[in-house]
Amino acid sequence: MYLQIKVPFFEQYDRLTMTNICKQLKQKVYDRGEVIIQKGVNSDCMYVVLIGEAGVYEKEDELLTKLTENRTIGERALRVDEITKYTVVAHKVSVCLSLQRLDFQKQVFHLEHELRIDRFNYFSKLPITQGMEMNEVSDLIGFFITNHYAPTEVIYEIGSKPDMMYIVRKGVLAVFCNVELEEENRYPKS
Fold first, then answer.
1. What HEC string does the chain produce?
2. What confidence tens digit (pLDDT) does each residue in 108-138 have?
3. Residue spans per domain, the chain
4. Among 73, 100, 71, 78, which residue's Cα sits nearest to residue 89?
5. CATH topology for the 2-103 domain
6. CA-based diameter of the chain, in Å?
7. Predicted confidence band at 33 (pLDDT cuts at 50, 70, 90)?
C-alpha cells in the first residue's frame, strides 16, 4: 500500500485498517496560494500532500516549514478538538487527500487502546517520569503527540522559538549547533 510505505503517519496501521482508511479518503486539488487549513478555525480533518508543496505559516509572511509530497498536515485534528494554530497554503498546484476525524476514529478505535497502553509503558520507563504516580504519567501522556519525520526533514531550526519538547522514541537524529572557537587555541567558548 502506497500510503503505508510512503507516508510515515500511516506506517503504524495494519493492512486491513489501511484499506478501510483509504476508502474514507477524499482527493482535492489546491491552486497556488489557496488556503488548505486556516489558522483560528476548528479543524476536524487531516491532509496528505500527494503532489505539490505547501507552506505552514504562523503569521501571514512567516514561513515555518515547507511540506512536500507524502507529508501530513493537521494529523492532531484526528484526535483532538482544538483551534488550529497555523495557516497552511499551497505553494504550487497541489493534490491532497483529506481524512475526516469521525471516519478515522471509526477505523482505528480498537487500535487506540493498544497504542495508549504502549505509550504508557514507554513513558513510565523514562527518567522524567520516575517517581510519578500512574495517574500523573497518564495525564502527562495526554500532552504529547506522536510525529513521524521523513529522513533529512528539519525538526527544529537553530534560533527559532521553541514551542514544544521532543522525545525521540525511534530513529536517529543529526544534531547541529553553532560553536564559536577561540582563534588562538581553537577550543569552544562557553
1. CHHHHHCHHHCCCCHHHHHHHHHHCEEEEECCCCEEECCCCECCEEEEEEECCEEEEEECCEEEEEECCCCEECHHHHCCCCECCCEEEECCCEEEEEEEHHHHHHHHHHHHHHHHHHHHHHHHCCHHHCCCCHHHHHHHHCCCCCCCCCCCCCCCCCCCCCCCCCCCCCCCCCCCCCCCECCCCCCECC
2. 766 777 778 888 899 899 998 999 998 998 8
3. 2-103
4. 73
5. Jelly Rolls (2.60.120)
6. 65
7. very high
- What is the C-alpha separation between 154 and 55, in angstroms, rounded? 14
62-67/87-90 β-pairing: unpaired
Nearest Cα to 128, choosing from 115, 144, 146?
144
The per-residue pLDDT for 66 is 92
Q: Are 129 and 167 in contact (CB under 8 A)?
A: no
